[in-house]
Amino acid sequence: MALEPDLLDWLLDSDPALRWQVQCDLAGAPPEVWEATRARITTEGLAARLLALQDPDGQWAGGAYFPHDFDFKGPEAAEDAGQPWLATTWTLNTLRDWGVNGTALAGTADLLAANSRWEYNNLPYWEGEVDACINAFTLANGAWLGTDVSGIAQWFLDHRLADGGWNCEWVDGSTRSSFHSTLNSLKGLLYYESVTGGNDGLRAARRAGEEYLLQRRLLHTLSTGELVGPWVTRFAYPFRWFYSALNAAEYFRAAALHDRIAPDPRIADAVEVIRGARRPDGTWVQERRHPGRVWFDVDVAPGEPSKWLTFFGTRVLAWWDA
């Protein structure tokens, strides 16, 4: 789908972390243009600000998944308070998603191996823990930073549920997969495979997890066909760990390109949800903010047109419509 010039100019007038992706995927700029923009993200703008906040021990906010000052029994731990997005894992996720080259964090993997422990049972950082989403983030971040996370990759083979996906609450006895957990697991596995080549077992697990979501058309319960939850049609950036039709469709776009296959027709309903959320001016609106402490806001307030969501929505529709 061709973008109106004014809309493309609006998207290009953005932080380098977004601008290089717009240049690459929507504007059709030659590699030397978007690669030059991408090279700037470590020295200016949002990513540079995050890099500057790294602790001397390699962490951010002094913790692996939560900041060191997080009170697990205090007001911030209440369900409606959200969670803080300051600590190491969330910051690494963000920098990786924005396209920062792992070499910009040279030495970080070793520092985390020496200094960072999970809040769960004080486990070593690069060995992962029991939560599927956390392990998926760590799998991708480890591959990005060039450290051995093959043990976490194996964890996903050992903990895939009978219906094909994953659930972070398996440790509490859950035997049914979760949309959220399965999508995050798939994203981690795909990134790991793209960096390391993966193996047949991991590819089979990834495809089984994809099938779990595709059978449900990315939106519905299998038992009743009802919408799995109101959150599936509410779009917010950053995605964090939350499932949405846009987050899921963006994964399937990346997976199809990686596998060099056509889009699966069962994605059609989710694509139409995304298309239906586009405003007449071609933009998508930030519908909410996931609550919790942040270093700084990286997108607009709820109710305002979001450049990030507009980029993702436009890219998904362009892929699908092609």
Topology:
Layout lengths: L4 H8 L3 H10 L5 H9 L5 H8 L35 H10 L10 H8 L16 H14 L4 H9 L20 H18 L3 H16 L29 H15 L8 H10 L6 E2 L19 E2 H15 L1
Antiparallel strand pairs: 1-2
Helix pairs in contact: 2-3, 2-13, 5-7, 7-8, 7-9, 9-10, 9-11, 11-12, 11-13
Give structural notes.
The protein is mostly helical. The chain has one domain. The chain is 47% helix and 1% strand. It has 13 helices and two strands, in the order ααααααααααααββα. Strands 1-2 form a two-stranded antiparallel ribbon. The radius of gyration is 19 Å and the shape is globular. The mean pLDDT is 97.
Tally of contiguous helical segments: 13
Largest beta-sheet characterization = 2 strands, antiparallel
Strand content: under 5%
> Strands across the major sheet, in which order?
1-2
Q: Which residue ranges are poorly predicted, with pLDDT under 50 across at least 5 consecutive positions?
A: none
Q: Report the helical percentage.
A: 40-55%
How many E-type strands? Answer: 2
Shape estimate: globular
Q: How do the SSEs run, as a string of H and E?
A: HHHHHHHHHHHHEEH
Structural class assignment: mainly alpha
- Average of the residue pLDDT scores: 97
Radius of gyration: 19 Å
Q: Could you say how many structural domains there are in total?
A: 1
